[in-house]
What does this fold into?
Amino acid sequence: MFEFALLGLLHEAPMHGYELRKRLHDLLGAFRAFSYGSLYPTLRRLQRAGLIVEEGPEESALSWGRRARKVYKLTPEGKERFAELLANAGPQTWDDDSFGVHLAFFSRTPADVRMRILEGRRRCVEERREGLRERLTRTGEQIDRYTRELHRQGLESTEREVRWLNELIAHEKSEQDE
Amino acid sequence: MFEFALLGLLHEAPMHGYELRKRLHDLLGAFRAFSYGSLYPTLRRLQRAGLIVEEGPEESALSWGRRARKVYKLTPEGKERFAELLANAGPQTWDDDSFGVHLAFFSRTPADVRMRILEGRRRCVEERREGLRERLTRTGEQIDRYTRELHRQGLESTEREVRWLNELIAHEKSEQDE
DNA sequence: GAACGATGTATCGCGGCGATATAATCACCT
DNA sequence: AGGTGATTATATCGCCGCGATACATCGTTC
It folds into this structure.
């Protein structure tokens, strides 16, 4: 997931760690944190896997005095891997925390995959909604006031999300046959 | 967090692992998963810490034939620990995933702590809301259509959550001076 | 000139998850 | 009587991501 996000960002341009984190933060800050505690280990993992490489030290031009920073760029295998992750978009793609990340890279995502992700996400949210609905209407085993309140709020918000997804899907469809 | 949930459940009655997980699942299934992969390790952690103990084997009455199951109950230290976790309710308490869990145990939570948690949560959601608002109104650096859509939806849903929290808080206040 | 906040890289331990193994019991069908 | 599958039940493994923390440099402000 983090892997996906980093590959996605490096797809746009080579970058160093701190910048990756910053871009990620103001792209998705409200939805996913992405701390340094995973950033650097993940970068090294990607590097070991040959998906990214440290770019040669072509600075020196202007900005030395700057400071030791390592600029990474995608290798061909990295690009391939990113495409593969998109193609294999499956169940875990539409989890709460994955979905936002994938949305953020939608402009880089083929139209058919976009559709698959949106519909997968919708099904997933609909399932949650049904669970909540069932739990709320089920009489018997009297349910704690606060828990009930939590479920009410959850139900309402999943309903809204489904409506929102429907709009996105409709828009997608209309664009598809334009 | 998981620790808090388990102590909270065992506060009601002694139980074995599977049952804990089931109760948790239909109490909070839509909000938090709580897999077996954390359940049993956490139980052992609690046990090592002396917060829970395996209950003596007073079955044999009816139900042998059943099958090896370990019933845990809270020790006095366990109860103390739970109270302590409530008293120390701090910033991490109002994270997305903690908050729901704490709500589920609100009937067991002192009124002043309830208030603190609700207000903390509200502040937290308000901050997220402001972040989203700022990001959306900020012109410049044209923002990807899908990301904008994500932020719009996020903004709307945080606004609704704040309103919901306000209602809860108001209700709490009205009850307080009844 | 010192204090502070941003830039920048990095590690450590831990909490939680998904996948997986194992096994007995129960309900149902044939 | 036998098979099949769902449910009850405990448990481990490796991985991912987080929060805390450390450290060093840079630019700005008092």
Remarks:
- The beta strands of chain A are 15-16, 52-54, 71-74.
- Confidence is low (pLDDT under 50) at residues 60-65 of chain A.
